[in-house]
């Protein structure tokens, strides 16, 4: 099993920045992708950004150039990945979920609320 704990959400004005962090613990040795998804009220959960253990990244078109996902770092038996979010827009408001993928399973964090006021 893998446990994911997110932090860093909150309320920010449009144009501001937030940094989300996700720490994975447990059976982390076979995690090959970590990423961030978000779900706004009434909408489907969507991929925001993801990074492989080899460093390849993928971003949703809507956040390209504004969000940056960090490399997966391993410290003290935890995998950590961060999402730096700049130039935030009201449409970025959502619950953001961390995801960790292994070859045969995937795991989700509990989610952290990001609210961008206009």
Structure in words:
The protein is mainly beta and 118 residues long. It is globular. The mean pLDDT is 95. It is 0% helix and 58% strand. Strand 4 and strand 5 form a beta hairpin. Strands 2, 4, 5, 6, 10, 11 and 12 form a seven-stranded mixed beta sheet that branches. Strands 1, 3, 7, 8 and 9 form a five-stranded antiparallel beta sheet that branches.
Q: Which helices and strands occur, and which strands form pairs?
A:
Elements: E1 2-7, E2 10-13, E3 18-26, E4 33-39, E5 46-52, E6 57-59, E7 67-69, E8 73-75, E9 78-85, E10 94-102, E11 105-108, E12 112-117
Parallel strand pairs: 2-12
Antiparallel strand pairs: 1-3, 3-9, 4-5, 4-10, 5-6, 7-9, 8-9, 10-11, 10-12
Summing up helix and strand content along with how strands pair, one would put the structural category as: mainly beta
Biggest pleated-sheet summary: 7 strands, mixed
How many strand elements? 12
Assign a percent range to the helix content: under 10%
**Overall 3D geometry?**
globular
Task: Please supply descriptive tags for the structure shown above.
0% helix; 118 residues; 58% strand; seven-stranded mixed beta sheet; mainly beta
Q: What is the compact description of this entry?
A:
With 118 residues, this protein is mainly beta.
């Amino acid at each position: 099993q893998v446990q994911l704990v997110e932090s860093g959400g909150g309320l920010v004005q449009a144009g501001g920045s937030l940094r989300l962090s996700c720490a994975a613990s447990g059976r982390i040795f076979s995690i090959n992708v970590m990423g961030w998804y978000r779900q706004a009220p009434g909408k489907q959960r969507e991929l925001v950004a993801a990074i492989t253990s080899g460093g390849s990244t993928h971003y949703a078109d809507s956040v390209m150039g504004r969000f940056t996902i960090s490399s997966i770092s391993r410290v003290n038996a935890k995998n950590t990945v961060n999402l730096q979010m700049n130039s935030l827009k009201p449409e970025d408001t959502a619950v953001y979920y961390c995801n960790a993928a292994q070859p045969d399973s995937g795991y989700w964090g509990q989610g952290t609320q990001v609210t961008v006021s206009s």
